[in-house]
């Protein structure tokens, strides 16, 4: 087990700077999830941590030891890839034992380590099979098992579940959470899956263009995003954004004109912007209300029924902006219906012209 400390980590490929000075401290035993749009540098940072790529500048400390220049095999890490990377000619047992065999560990120790990992992942009956005789989920378990037997101080996962079907992903996600509880080892996990990020992470790191936008516990990021990028990135469907203008402000309380001036929203902020400033108001689909006295008129143009909920797609009068609202599936909704939009109190976000969230009072 080990903590990890990244300080000013920079990495370029040719003229392209991919990582622009990453600072990140990861506690011993934490489950950290990296998210961000495609190409933002998540895998590059993972490869730098495990030593597959050297950084241009900055320091990587693992368990207090500076790892710059240390070969991957000596960093005490184990990486699990999306593509499993199992040896096809070896059995599951041989695949799992490989690193320990290479290290000339006594056979009895190897057998015990393989059996313990196989039991943790419930793959003992598969130990004699070759990878081609396994399902995708079983192969992924073997890849994780191979990482476990090495007893790494940190696990690195690069989208390990993305090749699995939806049901298997859910099962493996729950197993990974259990594994983390049992092993209590530091884990760094890259994913595009919002549910994996929200459910597995102790803290999520949101990347954008080779920089960290925000780090925090999942629900903190969801409910208190620092800026428009994080607000729009986390959550599916995404947060609705409405453009507004401050009509009146006493430095704390502000009246924001929305929907092209058809509606006035009163907010109380720690520091409200001055009259005339442009702002963006953010409201999540599940926090919009359909029938609010004095609400903003919006016309439904599409309805999606999901069984456990419904999504209404509506156009806001005055501005033509489109919003998505999560609605009660027991009620009747139809295209052409006019809503009076409001929001759950305390769930309205206001962002300034620079995209930063304005803290509520
Ligand atoms: N070996 C390399 N040589 C040149 N460019 C590279 C190399 N590896 C990565 N890149 C570039 O670095 C950028 C970041 O890639 P990276 O794989 O880290 O992104 P990512 O956030 O993991 O993306 P994804 O979510 O799609 O996996 C991309 O523009 C990619 O093309």
What's the layout of helices and strands?
Layout: E1 4-13, E2 16-26, E3 31-35, H1 42-50, E4 57-62, E5 65-66, E6 77-81, H2 92-102, H3 107-121, H4 136-149, E7 154-158, H5 166-183, E8 186-190, H6 194-200, E9 203-208, E10 211-216, H7 218-223, H8 228-233, E11 240-249, E12 253-258, E13 263-268, E14 278-283, E15 288-289, E16 296-305, E17 310-316, E18 322-327, E19 338-343, E20 349-351
Parallel strand pairs: 3-8, 3-9, 6-7, 7-8
Antiparallel strand pairs: 1-2, 1-4, 4-5, 9-10, 11-12, 11-14, 12-13, 14-20, 15-19, 16-17, 16-19, 17-18
Helix pairs in contact: 2-3, 2-4, 3-4
The protein binds adenosine-5'-triphosphate (ATP).
Could you give a quick summary of the protein structure above?
Helices cover 24% and strands 34% of the residues. With 361 residues, it is α+β, with helices and mostly antiparallel strands.
Structure description:
This is ABC transporter ATP-binding protein. With about 350 residues, the chain is of the alpha+beta class. The protein has two domains: about 5-235, P-loop containing nucleotide triphosphate hydrolases (Rossmann fold, 3-Layer(aba) Sandwich); about 240-350, Nucleic acid-binding proteins (OB fold (Dihydrolipoamide Acetyltransferase, E2P), Beta Barrel). The chain is built from eight helices and 20 strands. Strand 11 (about 240-250) and strand 12 form a beta hairpin. The longest helix has 18 residues, at about 165-185. Bound molecules: adenosine-5'-triphosphate (ATP). Adenosine-5'-triphosphate binds near residues 40 and 43. Adenosine-5'-triphosphate (ATP) binds near residues 13 and 44.
């Amino acid at each position: 087990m080990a903590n990890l400390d990244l300080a000013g980590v920079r990495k370029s490929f040719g003229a392209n700077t991919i990582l622009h000075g990453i600072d990140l401290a990861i506690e011993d035993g934490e489950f950290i999830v990296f998210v961000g749009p495609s190409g933002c540098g998540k895998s590059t940072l993972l490869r730098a941590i495990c030593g597959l790529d050297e950084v241009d500048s900055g320091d990587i400390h693992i368990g207090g030891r500076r790892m710059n220049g240390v070969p991957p095999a000596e960093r005490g890490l184990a990486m699990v890839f999306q593509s499993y990377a199992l040896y096809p000619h070896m059995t599951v047992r041989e695949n799992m034992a490989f690193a320990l065999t290479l290290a000339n560990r006594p056979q009895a120790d190897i057998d015990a380590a393989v059996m313990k990992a196989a039991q943790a992942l419930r793959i003992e009956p598969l130990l004699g099979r070759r990878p081609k005789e396994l399902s995708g989920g079983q192969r992924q378990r073997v890849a994780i098992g191979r990482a476990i037997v090495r007893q790494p101080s940190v696990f690195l996962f690069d989208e390990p579940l993305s090749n699995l079907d939806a049901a298997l992903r859910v099962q493996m996600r729950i197993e990974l959470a259990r594994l983390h509880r049992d092993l209590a080892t530091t884990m760094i996990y890259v994913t595009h899956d919002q549910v994996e990020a929200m459910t597995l992470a102790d803290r999520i790191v949101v990347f954008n263009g080779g920089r960290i936008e925000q780090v925090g516990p999942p629900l903190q990021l969801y409910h208190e995003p620092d800026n428009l990028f994080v607000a729009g990135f986390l959550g599916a469907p995404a947060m609705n954004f409405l453009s507004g203008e401050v009509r009146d402000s006493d430095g704390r309380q502000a009246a924001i004109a929305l929907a092209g001036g058809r509606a006035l929203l009163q907010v109380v902020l720690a520091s409200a912007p001055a009259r005339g400033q442009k702002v963006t108001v953010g409201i999540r689909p599940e926090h919009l209300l359909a029938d609010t006295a004095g609400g903003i008129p919006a016309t439904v143009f599409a309805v999606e029924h999901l069984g456990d909920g419904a999504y209404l797609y509506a156009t806001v009068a005055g501005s033509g902006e489109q919003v998505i609202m999560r609605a009660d599936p027991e009620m009747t909704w139809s295209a052409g219906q006019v809503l009076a939009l409001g929001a759950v109190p305390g769930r309205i976000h206001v962002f300034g012209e620079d995209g930063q969230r304005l803290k509520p009072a």
